[in-house]
Design brief:
This protein is mostly beta strands. The chain has no helices and 11 strands. A hairpin with a 5-residue loop joins β5 and β6.
Length: about 120
């Protein structure tokens, strides 16, 4: 399995970004896909996950602002981030795991990308 993130960058408060995760070797019909983030000096935290049946889960801090989606034909996972805040700043990671219970905890996920940096300035 290989996961490669892209789409990060620097935006001002209130701006938007769309992250992409190009995945290879993932069987989407039996996998959880997720986005995590890590701010400097902080632990990695779950942002959003998507199960193979389309069920999505979001951290409370991003509900209503972020949307996780998936294009199976392109083997790509997305994270649309709107109304960005400075506290959304961090390295964003794509993650994958086999199975159907897509909890937003780091130990649930087996495969990780290298991350893409998101910086939101006030």
């Amino acid at each position: 399995v290989q996961l490669v993130e892209s789409g990060g960058g620097s935006v001002q408060t209130g701006g938007s970004l769309r992250l992409s995760c190009a995945a290879s070797g993932v069987t989407y019909s039996t996998s959880c896909m997720a986005w995590f983030r890590q701010a400097p000096g902080e632990s990695r935290e779950g942002v959003a996950s998507r199960a193979s049946d389309g069920t999505t889960t979001y951290a409370d801090s991003v509900k209503g602002r972020f949307t996780i989606s998936q294009d199976n034909a392109k083997n790509t996972l997305y994270l649309q981030m709107n109304t960005l805040k400075p506290e959304d700043t961090g390295m964003y990671y794509c993650a994958a795991a086999a199975g159907h219970f897509c909890y937003l905890t780091t130990f649930r996920y087996t495969y990780w990308g290298q991350g893409t940096q998101v910086t939101v300035s006030s």
